[in-house]
Request: fold
Amino acid sequence: MNRLVRYLFFGLSAVVLQTSLVPSLSIFGQRPDLVVVFALIVGAYEGSSLGCAAGFLVGLAVDLYHPPTMGAGAMAGTLAGYLGGKAQVFLDLDVPLNQGAAFAAGLLAHDAVYSIVASLQGEGNMLWLFAGRAFGGAVYTALVGTACLSAAGLIRGRKHVVDRR
Amino acid sequence: MPRIRRFARNRRDEFLLVILLLAGGVFASLPRADSSRYIHDFFARANGTFLNTFDWAFELGDLHRENADLRRQLAELSLQVSQLQESDRQNARLRQLLDFEEQRRTEVLTGAEVIARGDGRQQFTVTILAGSAEGLQKNQAVATADGLVGRIDRVPGLRTAVVSLLNDPANAVAAVVQRSREQGIFQFVEGEGCLLYVLQTADIQVGDVVLSSGLGGIYPAGLVIGTVASVSNNTEDVTKRVVVRLSASLDRLEEVFILRQ
Reply:
């Protein structure tokens, strides 16, 4: 229960920060995606199933904030959460490079799904936007995600993600 | 069916992934529900609150600086107040030592509406709607927000009084130039307001403000009479001719205040 409340709090914070603070942190139009970071971390700590659920919910929350792409964020978030569970080994705290790579890959997968669904929803050709922004965003998200993962490790008081199992 | 169940058990993660992706697809294909507006509003409000808090946090530094400035200003003003209070007390002590009479305070007795102009003579008087019932007495000063206009000439009724205006040549006001403290008598001469009995050596310039000096006992000190419009320095005369433009417009009086000392 305690864990659920904690994840709920961090998930809600990720959505609020993503839609409020993050746009002002953009560098050359590139911005991190905290929703992806959250889904990946939940997936890494709790496994793919819970990662999927967490990614779905936070993605849906972002969709509700931007109704024209309803569902796109939920699907992309679900995939990110799933990948977080599968990338537990890469997200091990001892190797920041691996963590960064996992976050970057998660963001690319997330953005690819999001762009495809949003394009199908008539939001214009989002794939071009994906091609132009995804790599910078992936690097930025990798940096932020690695920092968040370190912070999550400190909060949990455990050094290794994979130690949980 | 058992095969699906087995797949769901063995491949729980993938099964959930597919289910949730399908659910996302359903959301994507749904028409935009109006109910989502409430959730959108909730996040918008949460964002607004968050950003306000964030701004507030950033403004804390400015607030600290502003607070420090205000504290410094407060300290300076407190010092000034304390010095002024000390001066006031010193002034009172010195007055007491020199046996000075306490300066009389002026206050507004009442306001009155102008109901008539002239009094059989020229436009030197106005009649106001206030009289002995309001406590008006002869020779009380009459002014507007712009400055002095005259004095009560007589109080013929309970609710009426006649005001002798400054443009009446029979009226004279002891005056002082605010800047240089040069003294004289303000009086209308040949249709012009003049400051009389001012020596050639007096320091008076165009634009100087002329106030009542309080001498004579009729007009309280410090009331604005007007500003110096021209100064003629004819060396053959003993005194200067100083023309003063009245601050109050005597032609357009509608309401006046009667002052009491």
